[in-house]
């Protein structure tokens, strides 16, 4: 097994980030988005009807919700500015002159526990003091976000300039990694989330992990397959990997039914950590199950087995063993949905499709992999399978994204792909094989076709 963990691609200053200052000045003049008094000590006024990117003064990187996830508890970090909706925030006023800072793509609020060094996440707006901030004046028109519950300032961990560095809070020292430039991104519609009431304020806890509501879970349907021209509704999935809240060694497969939120605990050690065939899965999901917010560490065996329609949301595979997840079941109408999260260090496949039905992979990121998805090429019982890959970021090295068997009726639809670190474009996008029930499948072609539904415009290289 390849135990090497890949380095994150370093985003150099883009043309977008080099003109941040110009954009801010223009936005102030044209939109009236942020008006500052002449003194550096004057508190700025905020246009509560606008979306803003928050760009760190030190790193010139934007505050970013990891993986464009819509799940509560997702990490907030910094990343190269793209103007994507997971880098846009609205300031919602609450009593006492404070603001909630809500992400555009998810509607969730920036949240941070009370202790110094506590890390920022997004969570369901609840009127909590841990979700409320004073917008304080920094230097030269920049701002600082000071948390109501703790009185501490938001900052980039370690004053880092790297992509993926988390956001935390610490004593306000007016340091440059505690100051942010506001860049107006446009007007916001009327809020769809009801304003929190003071009576809803929970007591902040440094160890509390916000739990997403069941209604946030997307309901997969077989008819949800987009066409080859469909565009993703969310930006490319990039961002920091989450920090586990704790770790738990596993000795036997854990069976999941209904909805289970595991609070970003890391589960590990059901296997030795190699890629041998026939390993037990870490989790087995019954038909209709939903698994949220979990990290699979080293020794994850065969990852997750889905026995019918299932949803895997904000799940992270730190060190893929045999496979990250396998879609089983027997019904042609079943759908397995991967929404958010990421996988790395997969010397072979990330996702294996053995049963029939539709496999949806969206808002996901992978790095250092063999293949993202493979429809079984030599299962003893074969089916026509459909795969939908939407809004996925792939960081090299990687061999291919999708492998299907058109002779068995397989179809793939791909859109919103971002490939990082592959300037020669060696990573295959969609490979076609002649599937069999015994022996080895034969590769017959590669590239867009009637079965491999995508266009060159669906791929961005950076």
UniProtKB/TrEMBL annotation:
Query: The organism's lineage?
Result: Bacteria, Bacillati, Actinomycetota, Actinomycetes, Micrococcales
**What organism does the UniProt record list as the source?**
Cellulomonas cellasea
Q: What are the UniProt keywords, alphabetically?
A: Calcium, Lyase, Secreted, Signal
Extract the ranges annotated as region (Disordered). Answer: 185-251
Task: List each copy of the Ricin B lectin domain by range.
Answer: 48-183
Sequence ranges of Low complexity compositional bias: 187-247
Record's Pfam families? Pectate_lyase, RicinB_lectin_2
Q: What is this protein called?
A: pectate lyase
Q: Which InterPro entries match?
A: Pectate_lyase_PlyH/PlyE-like (IPR004898), Pectin_lyas_fold (IPR012334), Pectin_lyase_fold/virulence (IPR011050), Ricin_B-like_lectins (IPR035992), Ricin_B_lectin (IPR000772)
Which Gene3D superfamilies does UniProt cross-reference here? 2.80.10.50, Single-stranded right-handed beta-helix, Pectin lyase-like
- Enumerate the Gene Ontology biological process terms: pectin catabolic process
Give the protein's cofactors: Ca(2+)
EC number of the protein? 4.2.2.2
Q: Which GO terms describe its cellular component?
A: extracellular region
Q: Name one GO molecular function term.
A: pectate lyase activity
Q: Which family does it belong to?
A: Belongs to the polysaccharide lyase 3 family.
Using the UniProt record, name the top-level EC class of this enzyme in a single word.
Answer: lyase
Catalytic function, reaction form: Eliminative cleavage of (1->4)-alpha-D-galacturonan to give oligosaccharides with 4-deoxy-alpha-D-galact-4-enuronosyl groups at their non-reducing ends
Where does it reside? Secreted
Q: Look up the domain of life of the source.
A: Bacteria
């Amino acid at each position: 097994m390849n135990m090497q963990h890949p380095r994150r691609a370093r985003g150099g200053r883009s043309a977008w980030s080099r003109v941040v200052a110009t954009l801010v000045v223009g936005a102030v003049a044209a939109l009236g988005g942020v008006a500052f008094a002449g003194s550096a000590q004057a508190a700025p006024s905020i246009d509560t009807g606008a979306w803003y990117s928050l760009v760190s003064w030190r790193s010139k990187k934007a505050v970013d919700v990891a993986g464009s996830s819509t799940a509560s508890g997702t990490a907030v970090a910094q990343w190269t500015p793209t103007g994507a909706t997971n880098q846009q925030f609205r300031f919602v006023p609450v009593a006492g002159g404070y603001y909630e800072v809500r992400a555009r793509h998810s509607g969730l609020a920036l949240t941070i526990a009370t202790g110094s060094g506590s890390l920022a996440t997004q969570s369901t707006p609840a009127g909590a003091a841990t979700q409320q901030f004073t917008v304080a004046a920094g230097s030269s028109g920049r701002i600082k976000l000071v948390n109501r519950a703790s009185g501490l300032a938001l900052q980039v961990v370690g004053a880092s300039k790297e992509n993926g560095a988390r956001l935390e809070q610490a004593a306000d020292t007016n340091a440059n990694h505690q100051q942010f430039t506001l860049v107006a991104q446009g007007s916001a519609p009327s809020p769809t989330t009801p304003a929190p009431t003071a009576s809803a304020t929970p007591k902040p806890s440094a160890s509390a992990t916000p739990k997403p509501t069941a209604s946030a879970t997307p309901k997969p349907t077989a008819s949800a397959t987009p066409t080859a021209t469909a565009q993703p509704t969310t930006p490319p999935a990039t961002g920091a990997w989450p920090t586990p809240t704790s770790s738990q060694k596993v000795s036997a497969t854990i069976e999941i039914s209904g909805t289970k939120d595991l609070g970003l605990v890391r589960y590990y050690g059901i296997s030795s950590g190699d890629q041998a065939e026939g390993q037990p899965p870490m989790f087995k999901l019954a038909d209709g199950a939903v698994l949220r917010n979990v990290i699979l560490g080293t020794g994850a065996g065969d990852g997750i087995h889905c026995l019918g329609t299932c949803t895997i949301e904000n799940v992270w595979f730190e060190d893929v063993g045999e496979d990250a997840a396998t879609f089983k079941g027997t019904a042609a109408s079943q759908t397995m949905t991967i929404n958010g999260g990421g996988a790395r260090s997969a010397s072979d496949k990330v996702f294996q499709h053995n049963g029939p039905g539709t496999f949806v992979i969206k808002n996901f990121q992978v790095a250092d992999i063999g293949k993202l998805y493979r429809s079984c090429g030599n299962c003893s019982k074969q089916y026509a399978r459909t795969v939908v890959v939407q809004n996925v970021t792939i960081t090299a090295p990687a061999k291919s994204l999708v492998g299907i068997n058109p002779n068995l009726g397989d179809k793939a639809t791909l859109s919103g792909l971002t490939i990082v670190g592959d300037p020669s474009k060696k990573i295959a996008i969609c490979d076609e094989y002649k599937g069999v029930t015994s022996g080895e499948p034969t590769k017959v072609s590669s590239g867009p076709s009637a079965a491999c539904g995508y266009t060159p415009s669906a791929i961005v290289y950076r």
